[in-house]
Design goal:
- This protein is α/β, with parallel strands linked by helices.
- It has a domain of 241 residues: Alpha/Beta hydrolase fold, catalytic domain (Rossmann fold, 3-Layer(aba) Sandwich).
- Helices cover 37% and strands 11% of the residues.
- The chain is built from 19 helices and 10 strands.
- Strands 1-2-3-5-4-6-7-8-9-10 form a 10-stranded mixed beta sheet, with helices on both faces.
- Strand 8, helix 18 and strand 9 form a beta-alpha-beta unit.
- Helix 12 crosses helix 17.
- 55% of the residues are buried.
Length: 565
């Protein structure tokens, strides 16, 4: 397959529950529009590019797009857009659009932070453009508090990580009920128009605005689902798409998965996190303490040490470091192997020694002025788009299920969707499939085998559902291959984006640097990836033995998915 060169550059420079519990769990389902029905045309926005900062390499612009694509001349909203021009003079192919995931990921912040992770040839040959999706950041944003102080007061009510015990559960539920009420009062119309489908339509207008006849796109995490949505709404407009860290589209909408599960349980995020956490402890235990501070000298001893620490923190927090806060910090820092895995191990060791660590440092440089990125922005997309239990009391049962199937990760991810229990907005426009519409050109999917948020099985599901896609397997760790580099993968990605050449079927790559690399035994990168035949009925477990929580959940039980050495 060869992809034609763009013409734009020549035209312009410019977590099993009892069946009764699940069946009685009411689900929220977005109001579904007839996605295939033709919509009135909307005008492409004009992008008035200007330097984001004087003398800096990034340009900024604002695009006006319709709030409701069924009424393109009605209310408009703004999208904040960022661009870095191709660095290879005379070699430019066109524009590559990035969506960094989320939902709710601000592209104007994350694209500049991630820019150097893109393959060199891609940076040379493409302008790279991203944007804050509608409802997010510097675009017309969902913002449900009157001031930063009001936001901080609300945040102080929410237990860190996830709630443990009846008191914390009551506080958590009350806080998110209050959030829903606040958001309904501020801009209820906007809440109905921040769906993935709305954003896919925005992306198509941005494509037109930069003069591209077909879309070249890189979507990470949730951005993979956005890409799949675009590819099925506009299949003839696809030039090339890399989907990295993949969602299962049918699971997002609750199809073919365990009845009554919350979104991230259906997506298998808890399963992926449990498997990756197990590898973190195994590899740490295989390393010396000089290379992994939390190592107890052997994998089994290190996993036991982690179980003991979890129980201790549940009974006796170290300063602000509760059991749930420590789990939150650890799971988040599994996303980027270098340097976050070593830093997370150091914080675990400090907690083991009874000392409160400093908070996790930012993984990427932060701008002097950060856009507002409140929790309501991600909730607005997730809760309007994807069905979740509407009874707040259901989430404790889901967390118990999560603990049985994925330990602490199961608790964490079960509660991650609870904001949707009483969320007021339902998507007015939501494309729910089919997912196999033939595209003008094939798509390239990329996934780490041990991804703590988007498990490998989800990439297999995505590949099976799309009409024409090739899956490149990376025998690595962390959330997305882009942020956990593999030169092998970059080479394949470059050839695909530049020349339209897919990797061979069944191709695999390895990361450039394994975790705790110095002094660590060779990573078993020849282990086959998890089987595509893994059950998807909500009772499956990661590639490790059945989860055996220690103690009740209200005392921190369920922190460790036990595995055989």
């Amino acid at each position: 397959m060869r992809i034609p060169r763009s013409t734009a550059g020549r035209r312009r420079r410019t977590a099993p529950l009892a069946a009764a519990v699940l069946c009685l769990t009411a689900m929220t389902r977005p109001d579904l529009a007839a996605a295939a029905a033709p919509l009135p045309p909307a005008a492409a926005p004009v992008l008035d590019w200007r330097p984001c900062a004087s003398g800096g390499p990034f340009d900024c612009a604002t695009a006006k797009v319709p709030l409701d694509y069924r009424e393109p001349t009605g209310r408009s909203i703004r999208l904040a857009v960022v661009r870095r021009k191709a660095t290879g003079p005379g070699r430019r192919i066109g524009t590559l659009f990035l969506n960094p995931g989320g939902p709710g990921g601000p592209g104007t912040l994350q694209m500049p932070q991630w820019y150097e992770f893109f393959p060199k040839e891609v940076r040379e040959r493409f302008d790279i453009v991203s944007w804050d999706p509608r409802g997010v950041g510097e675009s017309t944003a969902v913002r449900c508090f009157d001031s930063d102080l009001a936001t901080a007061v609300w945040q102080a009510r929410v237990p860190a990580g996830f709630p443990v015990g009846a008191r914390e559960r009551a506080a958590w539920t009350a806080a998110y009920q209050d959030l829903g009420r606040r958001c309904q009062k501020r801009d209820p119309e906007l809440l109905r128009h921040v769906s993935t489908t709305d954003t896919a339509r925005d992306l198509d207008l941005l494509r037109r605005a930069v003069g591209e006849t077909r879309l070249t796109y890189w979507g990470t995490s949730y951005g993979s689902f956005l890409g799949a949505t675009y590819a099925n709404l506009f299949p003839d407009r696809v030039r090339a798409m890399i989907l990295d860290g993949n969602f299962d589209p049918r699971a997002w909408f609750g199809e073919g998965t365990g009845t009554g599960l919350a979104t991230f349980q259906r997506l298998g995020a808890d399963i992926g996190a449990a498997a990756t956490l197990d590898r973190f402890l195994t590899l740490c235990g295989s390393a010396t303490a000089a290379n992994c501070a939390f190592s107890a000298g052997a994998p089994a001893a290190t996993r036991d040490k982690f179980a003991q620490l979890s129980t201790r923190l549940a009974e006796h927090p170290v300063g602000a470091w509760t059991y749930a806060a420590a789990i939150d910090d650890l799971l988040t820092n599994l996303y980027v192997v270098h340097p976050a895995w070593s830093q997370a191990a150091t914080r675990l060791e400090e907690l083991w020694q009874g000392r409160a660590p400093e908070p996790s440092p930012p993984l990427f440089p932060q701008p002097a002025k950060m856009p507002y990125l409140g929790v309501e922005q991600a909730a607005a997309v997730l809760c309007s788009d994807s069905p979740n239990p509407r009874d707040p009391a259901a989430y404790q049962a889901l967390a118990e299920l999560g603990a049985r199937r994925a330990g602490a990760a199961g608790q964490y991810w079960a509660w991650a969707s609870e904001a949707c229990a009483q969320w007021p907005g339902r998507a007015a426009d939501s494309y729910t499939g089919p997912w196999n519409r033939p595209t003008a050109h094939p798509l390239l999917l990329v996934n780490n085998v041990y991804d703590p948020a988007t498990p490998y099985r989800a990439a297999q599901a995505m590949a099976a559902q799309l009409a024409d896609a090739r899956l490149l397997t990376v025998q690595g760790y962390g959330h997305t291959v882009l942020l956990n580099p593999s030169t092998c993968a970059k080479n394949h990605e470059s050839r695909y984006l530049v020349d339209g050449v897919l990797p061979p079927a069944g191709a695999t790559c390895r990361p450039d640097r394994p975790p705790f690399a110095t002094g660590t035994p060779k990573v078993d990168t020849d282990t086959p990836p998890p089987s595509a035949d893994t059950p998807r009925d909500g009772t499956d477990t990661p590639p490790l033995s059945a989860v055996k929580p220690r103690g009740g959940m209200d005392t921190g039980g369920g922190a460790l998915a036990r595995v055989a050495d």
